[in-house]
Amino acid sequence: MEILKVENLTKVYGKGENEVRALNGVSFSVEKGDFVAIIGPSGSGKSPLLHTLGGVDRPTGGKVLVNGQDVYSRSDEQIAVFRRREVGLIYQFYNLIPNLTVRENIEVGAYLSRNPLDMEDLLQTLGLWEHQDKIPSQLSGGQQQRTSIGRAIIKNPDILLCDEPTGALDYQSSKEILRLIEKVNQKYRNTVMIVTHNDSIKDMADKVLMLRDGEI
Ligand code: ADP
Question: How far away, in angstroms, is 13 Cα from ligand 1 center?
Answer without folding.
Answer: 8
